[in-house]
Design a protein that fits this description.
13 strands, UDP-N-acetylmuramoyl-L-alanine:D-glutamate ligase, alpha/beta, 4-stranded mixed sheet
Length: 306
Amino acid sequence: MKRVAIAGEINVDLIFTGVPASPQFGSETLAETYTQCLGSSSMILAMGLARLGDPVRFVGRCGNDSFGQFCIAALRDGGIDTTFIVADDDLRTGVTIAMSSRSDRALLTWPGAIAELGADEVSEAALADAQHLHVSSYYLQTKLRPQLSELFARARAAGLTTSLDPGSDPAQHWGRELIDVLRHVDLFLPNQTEAYAITGAGTPEEALRALDNGVTRTVIKIGSRGAITLDHGKPLSAPGYPVQVVDTTGAGDSFNAGFIHAWLRDLPLLDCLHWGNACGALSTRGVGGTATQGTVDDVLALIHAE
């Protein structure tokens, strides 16, 4: 396998688990426990792919501070090529406070350097020997966002396939320019909430049809119920896998890792959904997005246990 290149955001997650209700101004809410760990949609995906044995290169910007060095070291320890990460003395690394219950989560993010990555930093050298380019957090990467069509077109011209996870839009604008970007994208990987917001649809099937442009395969993640896509115009879905959930942080990003891993190996589409669902489920067994991500053996054991 050639490399997967990821152009993405870098930040630390401070995760409070066992949160009984969303904190309210003027009151105090107690969590069961807290941990500092690797954050960001892009980095969780990178670690998930590396855990499955895929060679990964990460392109990004962070502050040359303790949080930034923590993230770079964690990626490097995960076997990821960090050559194209810039730790800038003039920037500060972003931080996300994640408040997680057993069924949902709420995020509070200070973006820091997240917005500073530009398409020019995803150079020919960064894409060399890669077969696939992924970008996450479309709405947070504000410098990269207007350059994304050009970047994806350049990657495709170099023979790479491409994928995009939009993430949430904190401004709740869900701009229509994303639809134009998708003309250059092979895989689009929103969750159900994101797909509804982008399209105005009310069901996954409606959202899939609204996003069907004849070029892009859209896969919608529907939480514990699994995932759904279109296969020759007809809905194809696979259910989620039951596990003992501890923390749902990054489960969608781990789904992306499993789906992309299988898709790059030309596995049947239903198998790709199963791989994504299994990786997403396995990641929820521990605190943080990367602590319990599955290996190939873990994934196969869960799939064949059904």
